[in-house]
Amino acid sequence: MADPRALFDLTGKVACITGASSGLGRRAAIALSLAGAKVVCVARREAALQSLSAELGDCAAHVAKDIADRGNLGNLCSAISEPFGAPDILVHAAGVNTREPADEVTHEGWDQTLALNLSAPFFLSQAFVPAMKAKGWGRIVNFASLQTTRAFPGGIAYGTSKAGISQLTRAMAEAWSSYGITANAIGPGFFPTELTQAVFSDDARASRNASQTCIGRNGRLDDMDGPLLFLCSNASSYVTGQILMVDGGFTAK
To answer: 15-62 pLDDT, tens per residue?
Structure first.
């Protein structure tokens, strides 16, 4: 029997992580690089990406572009592929939540949310699938949410995009898994990121959210390492079209 630890080794793989300038995307880049992957960190903020690349060293590169700009997709994909070749692993961690109440949702806010949270993961994946097919191996990890299945105040656009991620993940699996490409999603609970700053800046609200989990606390960034590595590696070779909730049991109660 082979050493089970080898199932999680990403040596020789190239991973592209969107939203890598902060939060869970940044943590994903660090975790996958420590597992042996070469990582391409993508976001809009050049300075934050430069800092992350410097921290990770020669195994990392960065691309400062807007992934929601569909008209620039070709240039984006070329820039992502330039440092290490086409990615074997795609982690779609970029996201936005405008927090507009239902009666105040603007066309701009709606379009911005769906473009970044739902359209970008599909079209970026679609662009790199041919290279994955040629290798017979690929991993796509989308980011779902508590709002994939639950409605939160001020979250109608965000929740719609994350509900869409659920079906997008299943449809990706149906389309591409026979080529050795798995597609799954991670659904984070409450983690301290820029997107949830409004939650964690309110101690009473953060404490209330923690009490609604089975474990009794909110997430820490390192809680995401194991689940993400599982879905990005050979350890999950027979797992596809699934949503893994990493929420401390919030959705179990």
So the answer is: 999 999 999 999 999 999 999 999 999 999 999 999 999 999 999 999
Alpha carbon of 55 to those of 29, 51, 115, 232, 235: distances in Å? 11, 6, 30, 22, 27
Q: How far apart, in whole angstroms, are the C-alpha atoms of residue 64 and residue 78?
A: 13
Nearest to 232 by CA among 51, 77, 92, 109: 92
181-194 per-position pLDDT tens digit: 999 999 999 998 87
pLDDT tens-place string over residues 151-171: 999 999 999 999 999 999 999
Q: What angle do CA 180, 184, 185 make, to 5 degrees?
A: 160
Contact status, residue 98 vs residue 104, Cβ threshold 8 Å: no
Domain ranges of the chain: 4-252
Contact between 253 and 214 (Cβ < 8 Å): yes
Structure tokens at 7: 């199932």
Among residues 88, 113, 59, 79, which one has the least CA distance to residue 233? 88
pTM over 0.85: yes
Domain 4-252 fold: Rossmann fold (3.40.50)
Q: For residues 76 and 200, what is the distance between their CA atoms, to the nearest angstrom? A: 33
- pLDDT over 70, % of the chain: 99
User: What letter represents residue 14's amino acid?
Assistant: V
- Return the beta strands (E) in 45-180 as ranges: 60-64, 89-92, 138-143
Which residues carry out catalysis?
Answer: 158
